[in-house]
Design brief:
The protein is an alpha/beta fold and 326 residues long. The protein has helices spanning 41-48, 118-140, 158-169, 184-190, 199-202, 222-231, 254-258, 273-286, 289-294, 304-312; strands spanning 2-8, 14-20, 30-39, 59-60, 64-72, 82-86, 101-104, 109-111, 150-152, 174-178, 194-197, 213-218, 232-240, 262-265, 296-300, 319-323. The mean pLDDT is 96.
Amino acid sequence: MFNAVFLNNASGFHAGIAQLDESQLPDGDVTVAVDYSTLNYKDGLAITNQGPVVRNWPMVAGIDGAGTVIASSHPHWHVGDQVVHNGWGVGETHWGCLAEKARLKGDWLVRLPASFTSRQAMAIGTAGYTAMLCVLALEDHGVTPGSGEVLVTGATGGVGSVAIALLGRLGYSVVAATGKASEEGYLKALGASSIIDRAALAAPGKPFQKERWAGVVDAVGSHTLANALAQTRYGGVVAACGLAQGMDLPTTVMPFILRGVSLIGIDSVMAPLAKRQRAWDRLARDLDLALLESMVQEVSLEESLLKAHALMAGQVRGRVVVKVSH
């Protein structure tokens, strides 16, 4: 038997800790003893039932996990291997990693970088891995530290916090957009050069505005993304990876055809292995582990249920690590 965050809607929605038998685990060719998981925005939506995340019921929550292989029929994975899992519909269509055991597909797994513990890998999680994908997109499209200011929206969230830490260490001038003025010290300690109020971006704005940003990492969407695009400099690049404000995009073609702005969509869920491995390799090289630790709150599996509600209420900054194993 093992403990898991179990979501059920058989007679009304319920989220709780359940004891499950290994025989109940779904199909997969690798079984992992999960050491740590994490709470991402998508996990918060699922556990609080605030969004249509779960598509197969009942469901074990948790899109991320790190731990040790305890059984494998996959040719690349062997008992004792340390692995990381992110995305692939786990916690949505396939039982997830907010559980002491998870059965997964070996093709979904990445080897835990030697420089990280499983706890550190989950402090990064999908949020941090997504942030790295955004930074790589800016680099790949020619945005350098000398190009000008880079805007990071949703700055105190998981993606924003890691993006600021990465960009700051790489030498970029980072402007953090947040609605939490009290977090200025936290954001500047991560590497932000300055702070702006998210309200300046959150309301409807003109389709074409004064040029400012060489690059943008946006986890918010809606009017925030539209305004960021309208303020991006000629040839600038915007990496979009989230929809905290909304999934709409009330913009025009003007930034794209008059300033040559590039809008790059960042998907972490179904990203191919080569892209995942590149991101994790760069995280191992470029992420300051002391800064990472400053973002972390650690909770137990049982405490993760309440913490998910706090996350959705905007009461969590940085990253939540869930200690799964006892």
